[in-house]
Specification:
Strand content: 5-15%
Distance between the termini: 55 Å
Number of domains: 2
Structural class: alpha/beta
Pfam family, one: HeLo
Protein name: Prion-inhibition and propagation HeLo domain-containing protein
InterPro entries: HeLo_dom, HeLo_sf
């Protein structure tokens, strides 16, 4: 479409309106409802996931510009679909607040009668907006001129003003749950599609997404693609299949390693974490390392009584064997799974790193659970408004407790085993003091407590793999002594991590 290059800034404005709508959800929701109503938690976390994707892959990022045109066009189409659904939701909300009107924003009859698709009309409007902005302002001043040109953002502003004057500002949340459910479903599905489109390999998308046309819904096409991935995924994602160890499998299947790794990582809420895990899987299938690490992880996974494994490894900066073995286990086993990898070279503050972990794990739990409510989960505060560098340890402790509550309820009501992997605990703030040592200890102790819950069936429902370079002495009393594996000395034998892991899993 010729007008798409002209509309990139307009697409960024549309995305801004979508994010503004997510903030509106929290502005008009009473605190006690937001904390206790699972539907409110679902929508808040789904909007956070969209915002996270936008920060990493959004239309105003350099990463987006590196994507090939066909992929960008499909992403833009999904953004417009989301933008349109938000406008419809706003119109529905306006009917409940009669003092909120903005007739000047309505489309003219002449424009509405034009024989164009909604997508084409929106591209045209946004392209026109882009041209107008480029003639009246510079990109440096874009933050100040975005809002006047964004209809959805203006509607959000007016709605917030109106609801703040209302004594029943949470009325729509409790009275229009159909709309709320619809928004949750739409947002989760769109986030999933956007992740696939930005993470799957170019070769796979080129061979499977050529049928994307204006007349065919994006969701149905990509759903069929996902079904194809699911049909082939057992060859890669099930540890019970010996074929998963075959280096020739990729030659026999139309699906490449990267796309299968993306599918295995579908429940990771953070786009940055997804990108990190997918790249690590691609690297790890060919990597070599200390054979004891992969064997220890596989034996622990096979152990019917194994719950927490605190794996201490060599503190050599370049040794990534534990990370590689952990992501390969995540890739191979067939169960509910959560993962977070602390970055060794991150310049973020300790508070931000720890908060990012809690946010990502909570969002993934909510996403996996779907529409089935949990047992009274509560969020202590609005996660959208948490400031990474100013949040107090006491508030962070509340979020740790919230994660434990969500995980405990999920494990109790789940009919499958749950795997949790947290890699790089030495970067979590364990050794920084200032309250973070106790936070990390509380996080690990809570996992052990959940593992110790008893069920009718024997064996643990939750298996938690925690890796730490060097000795994690401050965590020794948070887990049972038998759950600590000290592999900090130098490796006696180095072999293929993948072969060691799979061979021992099938031992």
């Amino acid at each position: 479409m010729a007008e798409l290059p002209l509309a990139i800034l307009g697409v960024a404005l549309a995305w801004k309106g979508i994010i503004d709508f997510g903030k509106l959800i929290n502005d008009i929701t009473e605190d006690h409802i937001r904390e206790k109503d699972f539907l409110a938690i679902q929508l808040q976390t789904s909007e956070l996931m969209l915002g996270d994707w936008g920060a990493f892959w959004g239309p105003d990022t350099d990463r987006f510009q590196t994507l090939e045109p066909a992929r960008k066009e499909t992403i833009i189409r999904i953004i417009f679909i989301l933008h349109g659904s938000r406008e419809k939701a706003m119109e529905r909300l306006r009917k409940q607040y009669h003092d909120f009107t903005d007739e000047s924003d309505e489309e003219s009859d002449e424009e509405a009668d034009q024989p164009k698709s909604r997508f084409s009309r929106m591209v045209g409007r946004l392209a026109h907006t882009t041209k107008s902005q480029q003639t009246n302002s510079t990109l440096e001043g874009k933050e100040n001129v975005d809002r006047p040109y964004n209809r959805l953002s203006r509607m959000v502003d007016k709605f917030v003003d109106a609801t703040r004057r209302s004594k029943n500002k949470a009325q729509w949340l409790m009275g229009d749950r159909d709309l709320y459910n619809q928004l949750v479903k739409e947002t989760m599905e769109s986030h999933k599609l956007l992740k696939y489109l930005t993470s799957a390999s170019e070769r796979f998308l080129a061979s499977n997404c050529t049928v994307l046309k204006d007349t065919q819904p994006v969701g149905s096409v990509l759903s069929s693609v996902e079904r194809q991935i699911q049909q082939h995924a057992p060859y890669r994602s099930r540890a019970s299949s010996v074929a998963s160890a075959s280096p020739t499998l990729e030659k026999e299947q139309s699906l490449d390693d990267r796309t299968l790794a993306v599918y295995a990582s579908r429940t990771i809420s953070s786009s940055k974490q997804t990108d990190m895990v997918v790249k690590r899987i691609e690297y790890s299938v060919h990597a070599h390392g200390d054979t004891r690490i992969a064997e220890s992880i596989a034996l622990w996974w096979n152990d019917a009584h194994g719950d927490v494994l605190l794996l201490e490894t060599s503190d050599e900066p370049d040794d990534t064997t534990a990370t590689s073995a952990g992501v390969l286990l995540y890739y191979l086993v067939d169960c509910h799974k959560l993962i977070f990898i602390f970055e060794s070279d991150s310049e973020d503050s300790t508070a931000k790193r720890f908060l990012d972990m809690l946010r990502a794990l909570i969002q993934s739990l909510v996403s996996i659970r779907g529409n089935q409510p949990l047992d009274g989960p509560t969020l202590p505060m609005n996660m959208m408004e948490m400031e990474n560098n100013t949040i107090e340890p006491t508030e962070m402790q509340q979020l740790v407790d919230c994660f434990h509550s969500l995980l405990r309820s999920f494990v109790r009501n789940c009919d499958r085993q749950v795997l949790l992997i947290v890699d790089g605990l030495e970067h979590s703030g364990l050794w920084e003091g200032n309250g973070f040592t106790q936070l990390v200890r509380a996080f690990v102790r809570g996992l052990q407590d959940i593992c110790d819950m008893t069920f009718d069936e024997p064996g643990p429902r939750l298996k938690a793999l925690l890796t730490h370079k060097g000795h994690a002495m401050d965590l020794y009393d948070c887990v049972r002594e038998m759950n600590v594996a000290d592999l900090t000395d130098h490796a006696a034998r180095v072999t293929s991590i993948r072969e060691d892991l799979v061979d021992t899993l099938h031992g």
